[in-house]
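Entry 12.
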Amino acid sequence: MLARLQKILTLSLLGAAAGIAAWSANGGHALRGAAIALLIVFGYALVLGVEFVLLHWVSRGEPGPRATAGQLLRAWWGEVRAMPQVFFWRQPFRSHAEPDHLPSSARGERGVVLVHGFVCNRGFWNPWLRELRARGVPFVAVDLEPVFASIDAYAPLIEEAVARLEAATGVPGVLVGHSMGGLAIRTWLRRFGADPRVHRVVTIGSPHRGTWLARLALAPNAAQMRLASPWLAELTASEPQWRRTLFTCFYSACDNIVFPASSGTLPDADNRHVPGAAHLHLASQAVVFDEVLQRLSEPRRRAADATA
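Predicted 3D structure (tokens):
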């Protein structure tokens, strides 16, 4: 469903830009038409700019890492380049270009379940999926639907993906969640008591403590991601401390979606700051992918460790 909606939006924007440019050129206002067309196509860059201004304003006095003006500018540019690749190409047109990889040779090999974030689909992970396939790593990438449901509703979808990976490998896998996907993994762990079935969890820009920006959205899952929301408080209170030690959480002071920066950290987890990386761009940082590869190569945890 999301791929269809984003495909319609992408084609509509391109069609509107081309139509206005052609109509203006015929009327002798080619420059004005070109300017309007560029605004339609690249207006998202201005919206991103507003997000970074809000990030800078909200983060005043925030303890922990702070972003410099140069880092924010570079992060904005990285996000300007990343956003059309994700929302105008991979997700609307290439969401199933990289199918799940569960070959017969996967038995005994540790694999990955990848969980995307808010208003995304499995196409978000395409660069990861190509690289994992090239390395022979088994993987399953989920689609979280409905797009604007409660985060709790996604737990069965993750359970299905993990079960498929388990059936193919027989080994507890590594779960990777970007943004809201990290919270969906936490709800799955709680609902299914699945700790022994997980080797490690890696989250990327996940709003573990919420995010200021979520107050501007009305969807049920967005409301759950507001700073200090009752839903987040209840989720955190329900988790045993040892469960969170399974997590490695990457966050950034330049994250234009999850801010202030401390929102991307999880108590008792291995929290790692990545300087100068914005929200989408954070998932393409080599340090993040390398961490997942390292977790894949670790020996199995003992049964006693898996159950704390």
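Annotation: The chain is about 50% helix and 10% strand. The CA atoms of residues 3 and 109 lie 31 Å apart.
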